[in-house]
Design a protein that fits this description.
This protein is α+β, with helices and mostly antiparallel strands and 393 residues long. It folds into two domains: 161 residues, no CATH class; 159 residues, hpI Integrase, Chain A (Orthogonal Bundle), CATH 1.10.443. 47% of the residues lie in helices and 12% in strands. The chain contains 17 helices and ten strands.
C-alpha cells in the first residue's frame, strides 16, 4: 500500500448542508474507503470556508501526517474496526430499540469522524473536539428541517463512544464540556378532560384502544402486544409480558415493565364487548390479525385531535396523562410506579404534570391564613391593617 500524501478531499452540497468527502486507508488492505462527513449549513458558510474546515478535519484525524502509513502498515486497530467488533458482539445483545438508536449514532456521527483514527489515539482532548464539532454542525432531519443537535443527543453519542472504547480508556475523563441544555419544552400530555373527549370522539376498536391507554398508562407497544390470555376480565386485571416493535413481538422495555395492573369496571366492560367472546389472538389487531403500527395509531389519534381542536400529540401523551391523574388524586407513589412499570420514582416524576386549576386549588387547600383556619383568630396576623399602615407610610 502506497502512501497518499496531501489529501485535501472535496466538498459537495447535499440539500442545505456542505459535506466533505475523502478516503481512508483500511489496515491490511490495498484498497481505500471513501467516507462523507457533514461540514456545516450552506447558510452559515461559503464553499471555500467549508473546504478550509474539511482540511482542518483531515489534519486532526492525521490522514496527512507522515506517520499515518506506518501506523496502518503495523495493523494498528482503528476505531472503525473496534466499532465493528462492538456492534457484532455487544450491541447485538441490546434490545432492538437500543440497537437502532445507538447504531444510528455510530454510523451517522462517530464513524465519519473517527473511523480512521487509531483507538489508542482517542483521548479526552479528541473527545472534546468531537463534542465541539457535533454542537456546531447543523444536521438535516427526515422532515427536511436542518437544526443543531441537542445537548442530550450529543451526550448519547458520546455515551456510544465510551461503550466502544471501554471504561479503562475513559474513566479518567473528568472535564468534558457539553453544550448547555436549552429550556426543555414540557412533554405533551392529555388532561382528564382531553382523554374523555378523545375516547368519546373515537369509535369501534379505536375507542376501546384509546380508553385502555388512558385508563392504564400502557405504552402503545405494550397494548399492541396484548393477547386475550393476558386479560383477567373477571378480576379487572391486565398482564404486560411483551411489547411490539416494528410489527414483531418482543420483550417489554425494562424488567419493571413486566407487570400486572388493575383497570376500572368501565374498561373491563368495553374490552369484554370488544372481544365478543373471542378467546384467542391479539386484543387489538388489524383485519389480518397483525398488531397496530405505532404510525397508524398516531395518525388516527391526530385526526381526532384535529377535529376536537386540540393540540397534536402521540400515544405517549396518554401515559403522561395517566400518571398525572393518579398522582393528583393521591394514589401512593409506589403503586403508581408499579402500575406504570417505572424503575424509580424520579422517572415517574418526569411523567407528572399538574394543571393550573389544580395548583391554585391545592394552594388554597393548604393555606395557613384563612378565615376558616382555627389558628387564625383574633390573635392571628392582621394583613389588612399592615397593608394599610404600609400605604400610609
Amino acid at each position: 500500500m502506497s502512501f497518499r500524501s496531501g489529501q485535501s478531499g472535496n466538498v459537495v452540497r447535499k440539500g442545505q448542508m456542505w459535506h466533505g468527502r475523502y478516503y481512508v486507508d483500511i489496515p491490511g488492505e490495498d484498497g481505500r474507503r471513501r467516507v462523507s462527513v457533514p461540514i456545516g449549513s450552506v447558510h452559515a458558510m461559503k464553499k471555500n470556508e467549508a473546504k478550509r474546515k474539511l482540511r482542518g478535519l483531515l489534519e486532526e484525524t492525521g490522514l496527512n501526517s507522515d506517520s499515518h502509513l506506518e501506523r496502518t502498515a503495523r495493523g494498528v486497530r482503528t476505531f472503525a474496526e473496534e466499532a465493528t467488533w462492538w456492534r457484532a458482539h455487544k450491541l447485538s445483545r441490546f434490545k432492538p430499540s437500543c440497537q437502532e438508536a445507538m447504531g444510528s449514532h455510530l454510523d451517522k456521527y462517530l464513524i465519519p469522524r473517527l473511523g480512521a483514527v487509531p483507538v489508542a489515539a482517542i483521548d479526552e482532548r479528541l473527545a472534546q473536539e468531537v463534542i465541539t464539532h457535533l454542537s456546531e454542525v447543523e444536521y438535516k432531519w427526515p422532515n427536511g428541517v436542518s437544526r443543531k443537535l441537542s445537548s442530550k443527543t450529543i451526550r448519547n453519542i458520546v455515551g456510544v463512544l465510551k461503550q466502544i472504547l471501554g471504561k479503562k480508556v475513559w474513566r479518567d475523563w473528568s472535564d468534558l464540556a457539553f453544550p448547555a441544555d436549552a429550556m426543555k419544552k414540557e412533554q405533551r400530555w392529555f388532561t382528564e378532560t382531553e382523554m374523555r373527549q378523545i375516547v368519546n370522539a373515537a369509535s369501534g376498536v379505536w375507542r376501546v384502544l384509546f380508553a385502555t391507554l388512558a385508563g392504564s398508562g400502557m405504552r402503545i407497544g405494550e397494548a399492541s402486544g396484548l393477547y386475550v390470555e393476558d386479560l383477567d376480565l373477571a378480576g379487572g386485571r391486565i398482564k404486560v409480558q411483551r411489547s411490539v416493535r416494528n410489527g414483531k413481538d418482543g420483550t417489554p422495555k425494562t424488567k419493571k415493565a413486566y407487570r400486572v395492573f388493575n383497570v376500572e369496571p368501565v374498561i373491563v366492560e368495553m374490552l369484554t364487548a370488544h372481544l365478543g367472546g373471542r378467546t384467542t389472538g391479539r386484543v387489538f389487531q388489524t383485519r389480518t390479525g397483525s398488531p397496530f403500527s405505532k404510525g397508524n395509531v398516531r395518525r388516527k389519534l391526530n385526526e381526532i385531535l384535529k377535529k376536537l381542536g386540540l393540540a397534536p400529540g402521540g400515544s405517549h401523551a396518554f401515559r403522561h396523562g395517566r400518571v398525572s391523574v393518579l398522582r393528583s388524586r393521591g394514589v401512593p407513589d409506589d403503586l403508581v410506579k408499579e402500575w406504570i412499570g417505572h424503575s424509580n420514582l424520579s422517572t415517574t416524576s418526569g411523567y407528572t404534570h399538574f394543571q393550573d386549576a389544580f395548583r391554585k386549588q391545592t394552594a388554597c387547600d393548604v393555606a395557613l391564613f384563612t378565615n376558616e383556619n382555627p389558628l387564625v383568630g383574633p390573635n392571628g396576623p392582621n394583613f389588612v391593617e399592615k397593608s394599610e399602615e404600609s400605604s400610609a407610610a
